[in-house]
Design goal:
This protein is an alpha+beta fold and about 425 residues long. The protein folds into two domains: about 5-100, Helix Hairpins (Orthogonal Bundle); about 115-420, Bira Bifunctional Protein, Domain 2 (BirA Bifunctional Protein, domain 2), CATH 3.30.930. It has twelve helices and 18 strands. α5 crosses α12 (about 385-395). The radius of gyration is 28 Å and the shape is elongated. The chain starts with a helix and ends with a strand.
Length: about 425
């Protein structure tokens, strides 16, 4: 969320940022609302001072035996005027906050400008994708042929965009999540958490999902929301808090289910388990000093890459354009894994530096050493990585001509001696 004081001081910079996002300029509108709000606040202060003076004079007049009716009438009139101005001020403040709350973060200066993914720029890749001596199959063809992936039974229970995994394939899915969380905690310095999966409105507002993206979420009848990603509860660890600079960066990770309505994905990826209403993901979150956030983004992206490297999966890293970034991000790297069955790269991790955008919304601060005041934190989040999509990549990359699937060596310690998934289990 933007600081209106910053917009007041940098209107042209703000408008340029919105233009880079493909949005109309709003500085003039916001500054008009801000000026009217501040003018009303000044009027309220002046009327309060006049009311106090008039109230004081009532006592003096009465003590002198005079008629205080005029002063009393003035106080009553000021009270009514103040109530009206105060109500108008609240409306102006609400209108200002509503606009500010719906505006996306400003892109970093080095983010490529573009309307969509066509303007994304490849930063690096892991090398050429693997070659196959046969026509590789897609994950759902492999899983169904092995009798380990059942979309029909899931649809009977829950409808479309769900899957039921069985036997060793279910274990492989579990192994991937355990491998990732162990890697990030043991080697990358992230602290594991098991956060709530149900949160209130203000938590989703803090990370930027509300109010604009409510249609993408699932809401319960008791006004809880199912988390779309562990980014939401992990980032809100710092909400309404003041951390010590010595505790930064605070690095957190969690393996959780995620729930998304996929409201805008009608007709997309309807076969298989690439785009589902429920999926597991390992999330990484960093809360850090503003001077650290650019470096922290590189580190976080590297942590996600190591997951794919250890699993022997081919991938590339893309810098997202200004029009393709998420709402809260100021810079994002997408890691896209190669899916041999599809013959294409698909996103498996998205790592974003949000600057102080989320911290302003959730009131997350830190106290710099040797200073009296506080500053807003910078927050970052990244997938480390999406477990279901990683399962797809492993299945398609490690498939054999007979339809069996080899288990990557990094997962052997988690598989209880299973090294190949075949029709016989």
């Amino acid at each position: 969320m933007f600081d209106i004081k910053w917009i007041r001081e940098n209107p042209a910079v703000f408008d340029t940022a919105m233009e880079r996002r493909g949005l109309p300029t709003r500085a003039a509108e916001l500054l008009d609302l801000d000026a009217a709000r501040r003018e009303n606040q000044t009027r309220l202060q002046e009327m309060q001072e006049r009311r106090n003076a008039a109230s004081k004079s009532i006592g003096e007049i009465k003590r002198g035996g005079g008629d205080a009716s005029d002063a009393m009438a003035e106080v009553a009139g000021l009270k009514a005027q103040m109530a009206a101005v105060e109500e108008q001020t609240k409306k102006l403040a609400t209108a200002l906050d509503d606009i500010l709350g719906g505006l996306p973060n400003a892109p970093a200066e080095d983010v490529p400008v573009g309307a969509d993914e066509s303007a994304n720029v490849k930063l690096r890749d892991s090398g050429p994708p693997p070659d196959f001596a046969f026509e590789p199959k897609q994950h759902f063809e492999l899983g169904e042929a092995l009798g380990l992936m059942d979309f029909e039974v899931a649809a009977k229970m829950s409808g479309s965009r769900f899957v039921a995994l069985k036997g060793p394939l279910a274990r492989l899915h579990r192994a991937l999540g355990q491998f990732m969380i162990d890697l990030h905690t043991a080697e990358h310095g992230y602290q594991e958490m098991m956060p709530p999966y149900l949160v209130r409105d203000h938590v989703l507002y803090g990370t930027g999902q509300l109010p604009k993206f409510g249609d993408d979420l699932f809401r319960t009848t008791e006004d809880f929301w199912l988390i779309p990603t562990a980014e939401v509860p992990l980032t809100n660890v710092a909400a309404d808090s003041i951390l010590d600079e010595a505790d930064l960066p605070l690095r957190l990770t969690a393996l959780t289910p995620c729930f998304r309505s996929e409201a805008g994905a009608a007709g997309k990826d309807t076969r298989g388990m690439l785009r589902q209403h429920q999926f597991d993901k390992v999330e990484m979150v960093s809360l850090c000093h503003p001077a650290q956030s650019d470096e922290e983004l590189e580190r976080m992206t590297g942590c996600a890459e190591i997951v794919l490297q250890r699993l022997g999966l081919s991938y590339r890293v893309m810098v997202l354009s200004s029009g393709d970034m998420g709402f809260s991000a100021r810079k994002t790297y997408d890691i896209e894994v190669w899916l041999p069955g599809q013959g294409s790269y698909r996103e498996i991790s998205s790592c974003s530096n949000c600057g102080d955008f989320q911290a302003r919304r959730m009131k997350g601060r830190f106290r710099p050493e040797g200073e009296k005041g506080t500053r807003h934190l910078h927050s970052l989040n990244g997938s480390g990585v999406a477990v279901g999509r990683c399962l797809i990549a492993v299945m398609e990359t490690y498939q054999k001509a007979d339809g069996s699937i080899a288990v990557p060596e990094a997962l052997h310690p988690y598989m209880g001696g299973i090294e190949v998934l075949g029709r016989d289990g």
